[in-house]
Design goal:
CATH architecture of one domain: 2-Layer Sandwich
Radius of gyration: 21 Å
Helix content: 10-25%
Number of strands: 13
Order of helices and strands: HEHEEEHEEEEEEEEE
Strand content: 25-35%
CATH class of one domain: Alpha Beta
Distance between the termini: 60 Å
Structural class: alpha+beta
Shape: globular
CATH topology of one domain: TolA/TonB C-terminal domain
């Protein structure tokens, strides 16, 4: 009887440890926006039918994103930016897909952010986008619509 009780207690201990390990493995990691942008497979930009911006201006919307182990956006929340553009940014980012973020060869859920830049001419684009070579492009300038002058240089990089 004592042996059976010991085996049962030992079994419960290992089961609890396994559940704890699984719970640890599924917590999302915080990954910088630029690193995740290199893994973007699709990044729809939100359409603007009637831009609330002036023609030679721009606006930024930052969205906090939870990406699951398969690379699908599970959750997107408005973090900051031009609130009139919040709904279109959230709708677009929720349709983005990423290559899975890998840790020790295992796909891992992550938490990151996505910054969408809206131009006064109705265009919208992610602040960072894949460059097709495994890296990213963008993030060091804020472009303006054609005919509005040169892009604004960013002195401090956005993560």
């Amino acid at each position: 009887m004592a042996l059976r009780l010991s085996i049962t207690i030992l079994g419960l201990f290992f089961c609890q440890q396994a559940i704890f390990t699984v719970a640890q493995d599924t917590r999302p990691l915080d990954i910088p926006e630029k690193a995740m942008a290199a893994l973007l497979l699709s990044h729809e930009t939100p359409p603007l039918s009637a831009s609330p911006l002036k023609r030679c201006s721009n606006a930024l919307v930052v969205v906090r994103v939870l990406v699951d182990a398969e690379g699908k956006v599970n959750k997107a929340d408005f973090e900051s930016g031009y609130s009139e553009l919040k709904d279109s940014a959230l709708a677009a980012v929720r349709r983005w897909t990423y290559r899975p973020y890998m840790v020790s060869g295992k796909p891992t859920p992550v938490r990151t952010q996505a910054s969408i830049l809206y131009l006064g001419d109705g265009q919208a684009l992610p602040m960072h986008a894949p460059d097709g070579k495994g890296g990213t492009k963008g993030g060091n300038t804020l472009p303006l619509p054609a005919g509005c002058g040169p892009a604004i240089q960013i002195k401090k990089a956005l993560n």
